Amino acid sequence: MDNIKWVMDIVTDVVPKVKKYVSYQIHHNHYVNEFKDMQTKLKRRRQDVEQELRTQLKQPRKIAKKEVKAWLKEADQETAEKVAEDLIYKGGPFTYIFSSRELDERTQSLEEGIFKQGEKYTSAGESLVVDTPSIEYWATVFEERQEQLKLRQKDIEAKLETQLMQPGKIASMEVKDWLKKVSQQIPIKVEDLINQGGCSSLSNLRRKIEELKQIFEQGENYTNDSQGLVIDDHSIKGVSQLVDECRGRDDIQDQILEWLKGGECQETLTLLSSKKTKFDILKFQKRIASSLGLELKPEDHENENKPAGLISQRKLDKRTQSLTEGIFKQGEKYTSAGESLVLDTPSIEYWATAFEEKQERLKHQKEDIEEILKTQCMQLGKIARKEVEEWLEKAGQQIGIKVEGLINQGECSSSTNLKKNIEELKQILEEGKEFTNAGVSLVIDDHSIKGVPLLVKECRGRDDIQDQILEWLKGDEVTRIAVSGMGGVGKTTIMKQAHNQLLKESKFNKIIWVKVSRDFDIIVQQKKKFDILKFQKRIASSLELKLEPEDHDNETKLAGLISQKLRQGNSLLILDDVWQQFCLEDVGIPILDGNNGCKVVLTTRLQDVARGMECEVVMVSPLPANEASALFWEKVGSDVFSDGKIKRDIEPFVKKILQKCDGVPLAIVTVAKSMRGKLLPRHWKLALSEFSKFESIIDCLKFSYECLESQCQQCFLYCALYPEDHEILKEELIEYWIEEGLIYKEGKTREAMNWKGHDIVDKLVDNCLLQSVKNIDNQECVSMHDLLREMALEVSQFFVKAGIALEKLPEEDEWRDCLKVSLMRNHIKEIPSSMPSLKCPMLTTLLLSNNNISTIPEALFEHMLGLKILDISHNLELSRLPSSVSKLEKLTTLLLGNCGFLEEVPSLSNLVGLKKLDLSWTSIEELPQGLNMLTNLKYLSLGGRLSETLDEQLQNLSKLQHLLANAYPDAETKYKWETIGIWGKLQKLEKLELGYLDNLNMVFGEVGAIAESAPLPAGTFSSLQYISVIECDKIKMLFSVRWLGYLQKLQTIEVTYCWQMEEIIGSESEEGEKVTLPNLESLRLGSLPQLKSIYNGSLICDSIKKIKIFNCKNIESAFWSGFNPLPNLEYLCLFELQSLKCVFDEESLGLSPLVPPTSFFPLKEIEVLDCHQLKKVFSSGWLLHYFQSLETIKVENCPKMEELISSSAHEEGKVTLPQLQSLKLIELPQLKSIYSSSGVFICDSIQSLIIYKCEKLKRIPLNFHLLDNVQSSHPPSLKKIRVYPKEWWESLAWDHPNAKDNL
C-alpha cells in the first residue's frame, strides 16, 4: 500500500508539471514557427533583391550602392539557421518562457526593420546601382588625401619642433611612428598605383586612400593644443636651477642627500605621516584637477578616491566631449530633410580663375611684407628672421607658377593640379598673416655682430671713470658694477661709450642693453615692486628665446632658460636707469664663471640699489670747473666762443651761471643751448639774475624752459603726459598739439599747422629738451630725459600715471584740481559701476588710451564739464560709451579709434564745439545721432561696419579738413554719397582717405553727374591737396576729367589695391583734351592690375617730384603719351611692371638727338625692380645729357635686362653723370653691358658700386684716370665695392691692365 501511495503521490506531483511542460512546448513552438516563417519571407525578399541587382549590374560601368550591399549582408546574417538554433534553447520550461518572448520580439523586429526596409529595393524603377567612379576620380581623391596628410605632417612637425625646444624633452614613440608612416605614404606616386587593369588599379587606389584616411585621422590627436608630443628625456636628469648661496645649512643638506641616496626615506615619511601634521591628499588632488582644467562635482570634493579616477580619465572625457560637440553635432544638419549634400563640379576655368586670384593676393601680401622687412632691416644690427626669408622664398615660387603650366593634361589631372596649388597658396597666405600684424618684428639681431653701436654724444672729463669700468669688465675679479650718480650727470652717456668700445674688442660674445627706467614697476598691495616676469620676457626677447605658451607666466622656468642661454658664452648685460633692487638670480642671470656666464653693469641714481644688488660702485661726480666751462663754451655757439671781446665781456656771468649748474652736463648743455645767439652783456646779466634764485638742477633746467616762447613751452610740457622714456611718434604728438589748440590759428590749413608742429619739434630737439630717435618700425620719434620730464611735471598742473601698470583709476582726491590727466598705457580693465561721478571741474584733458577698459560707468563724466580732449582709443574690449559723454559741451576732441568691440555711442548733438572725431576700426553700424550738427568738425575718421549713406551727415560739416572713411575688409559696409552736391559743401577739405569700400564706383560720383546736377559752387575742393584710395574693389576710375577744374590744388594722389581700376582720370572721348594738375607733387600707384593709363589725353604735371608705380601689369611705358612729369621730377620708382620694355626713350619724352639740350631734368634717384620684360633703362646714351643730376641708379631682378644704356649712331662713345654716387645692379642674369661694348661711363662722384649675380656682364666701363699715361686710378670718391660671385669678378675684362688692383 505504501508503495502504491508513493507511486500515486509521484503521479499526482509529476502529471501537472508534465502537462504544464507540454503546454509550454506547444506555446513555444508557435513562436518558433512564426520566427522561421519570417526568416523564410526575408530569404525570399533577399533573393528577389539579389536577382534585381544582378540584372542592373549588367549595365556598363555600374556598381552596387553601398546601402544595398549593407542590406544584403544584414539579411544574410538574419536568415542563417544558427540564429533560430541559438534562440531555441532546450533547457527547461522556464527557459522557454524567456525564449518565447525573445522570439516574438525578434520576429517583430525583423518584420518592421530589415524586411520592411528591403521592400523599396523590390519596387519598380528603384535603382540599386551607381556609376563606377573612374580611375581619374580615385586618383584625384588619392592626391587630395596625400595633400591633406602633407599639411598635417607639416603642422605636427612645427609643433614638435617648438616643444622640443624645452630642455630635457624628446619626441614620444607614437609620434615618431606616425611621422614614419606619413613619410612612407607621401612619396607614393599615383602613376605607380595605376599600372594594371582597371579593376586592379581601382583596388590599389581605394586601398591606399583608406590607409591615408586612417593615418590622417590618427594624426588629428596630435594637432590638439593640449596634446603634448614630447616626453622627458631620461638620459638627462633635469634642468639646473639658479640659486643663491646657502650658508650654514650644510648639515641639513647632507641629511637630505643621505636620506635620498639611502633606503630610510620611506621610514622617515611614515614617521612624519603618523604625526598630527599630515599631507592633505584631497587638497593636492584638487590642485592637480584645477591645473588639468577639470571641474569637480560637489560630491567629489570630499572623496579622495573619486578625483584620482577623474584625473586619469581627463583625456578620454575631453575626446568624448570633442566628438559630441564637434563632428557628431556637425553631422546633424546632413540628416535633415531637404539638405543637399552635393554640388556641381567646378570647371577647369573656375579653378584657373581661383588660382590666379589667390596668386594676385599672395603677390600683394608679399609686397607688403617685403616693405615692412625693408623698413625694419634699416635698423643697425638687424637681419630678417629665417622663417620670414623662407616664407618669401615659398611665396616667390608660387607667384612664378603659370596657370598654363598646370593645365597640360586631361581635365581630371588639370583640376587636381590647380586645386593642389590653390591649397598651397591658401596655406602660404595664412602663414603670411602673422608677418603683417601690427607690432610683429620680422627681424632679429645679427649674431655675426655682438651688438649694435649706440648713438652717443661726446663725454667730457670722464676718461678716468670709463677706464675704471673697462678695466673691471675686462678683468675676472669684478662681475657686477653699478654706475651711480645724480640725474643728468652723464651715467648713461659713459656706459654708451663703454658699450661701443667693447663692441670693437673680443672680450664678450654678446652685449645686451636694456632700458629699465619705470617700465618694470608694478603696484602690489599699494606698494611698488619690480616685475621680474616682465623683465624676464624682455631679456628672453633680447636673447631670441622661443617660449612655449606655458612658459610665459612661469618665473622659475624662464629663469632656467635664460640662465642656460647665457651660460653658452661670455655676455655683458647693461641695465640703464635702475630704480629698484631685485635679485639677478631670480631673473636667471648667472654670474660669470670662467668664459661662461654674464657680467652686469647697471646705472642708477640710488646707491641703496647699487649696494643691495651687491655691485662694485663707480660714483660719477659733477664735472670739474675747467671741463664744465669747456663744455659750456662749446655748446653756446661759435658766434660767442670765437669772438674774443664778446667772450671776455660775458665770461664773469658765465662763471656764476656754471656755479648754479653744479657741473651737471645735462644742465650745462641745456642752458648753453638756450643762450645761443645772446651776444650782449645785458642778456647774460638778466639770465644771471634769474639763476641767482635757483637752488637745484631742476631749477637750472627750468631756466632753459623759461627761455622758450610760450607756444614751445606748452608743447614741451605736453610731452610729459607720455610714459617715462617713451618713444613718442612725431605725427601723433603734433596731432595732439593741434587738437589742444597749441598751434592753432584761425584760417590756417591743417597742412600748415602740421609743418608748424615739425618746426616746434626741431626747436625743442635743438635746445636739448627732446631727443630725436627712431622706433622699431623706423618711424620718426622723440623722447624726453627723465630729469626734464620731472621738471615738466613740476612746472605743469598735470597728473600723470602713464605706463606704470595701474589696474584701477587713482583716487579722485589725487587729480581733482589738475588741468590734464594721463593714465595711458596701463592695465586698467574696468571702471567699477559703484564709482561715483568724478568731480574734476578744472580738467581739460583726459588720456585713457591703450588700456584694457571694458566698461565705463554711465555717470563718470557728469562733473567733468570743462573737458576738451578725451582719448579712449585702443581699448579693444570697450563695447559702449556712457551717456554722460553727451554732456561734455566743451569737448573739442573725442578719440575712439581701435576700440574694436565698440557698438554704441550716445548722441553727439550737444558737442557742437567738437573739432576732431575718430571712430575708425570700431564695430559701430550706425553713425552717432547728431553728427550732422557738429558744424565745427575739422577731422572725421569713420570706419568699421557702418552701413548708411553720408550725404545728410556731411552736408553741414563745412569746416571739415580731413575725412577718412575705412571699413573692415570682411564687413558689408555700404556707406557712400548719393549726390554730387555734397562735395560743394566741403570747401575746406584738405585730405581725403578711403579704404576697403567695396560698393564705391568712383570717388566723387558717376561720369556725367556734374552735368546733370546744378553746377558746383565756386571754391569746391579749393583746399583739397591729398587723395588716397586703398582696396576699393569696384572702382574703375578715380574721378572724371570734369572734376579737374575743381582739383587744381591737388598735391598727392595715392591709389593702391583697386583690382578694377582702369584709369586714374576718366576721359569722355577717345582722345582726351589737354588738362593740367599744376600743383601735383607726388603720385603713387600700386597693385592696379587693370590700369591702362593715367589719362587718355595730354596731362601736364610740371610740379611733380616723386613717382612710384608698382604691380601694374598693363603698363608698357613709364610715361604715357602726353604725360611728361620730368621738369621737376626727383625720384622715380618702378616695381613689378610686367609689360614695361623701356624706362626712358626719346619718343615718349619727345626728345631728339639732333636738338642739343637747353635744360636738364632734376631727377636724382631711379629704382627699377622686378620688371620681367624690361630690356633697357635708357634707349640711348645721349639721353643722359638730360639727366646730369642723377645720384642713384638701382636695377634689380629684371631677368630680360640686356643693357642699362643702349648706344646709337649718334653716340660719342662716352656718357657723363657727374653727380652719380651709387650704382646697384642686382640679379640681372641677361645683362651684357652697362653702356655699349666699348663706351666709357664717366662718373667721378661715384661712392658705391654693387653688382650681384650679373654673370654675363664682362666689362665695367667706369672711367679710370691715367697717372703718367700708364698707371690707372679709380675715382677718388669710390668708397665701397660689393660684388658676387667672386669668380665672376676675377674674370672681368678691364680697359687698363692694373685697374682692378687699384680698386
From TrEMBL:
Residues 464-637 form the NB-ARC domain. One of its GO terms (molecular function) is ATP binding. It comes from the Eukaryota. InterPro entries: Apaf_helical, At4g27190-like_LRR, Leu-rich_rpt, Leu-rich_rpt_typical-subtyp, LRR_dom_sf, NB-ARC, P-loop_NTPase, Plant_NBS-LRR. Residues 721-792 form the Disease resistance protein winged helix domain. The keyword Nucleotide-binding applies. Signal peptide: none annotated. Residues 1014-1131, 1156-1260 form the Disease resistance protein At4g27190-like leucine-rich repeats domain. The keyword Repeat applies. Residues 32-81 form a coiled coil. GO terms for biological process: defense response. Keywords: ATP-binding, Coiled coil, Leucine-rich repeat, Nucleotide-binding, Plant defense, Repeat. Belongs to the disease resistance NB-LRR family. This is NB-ARC domain-containing protein. It comes from Rubroshorea leprosula.
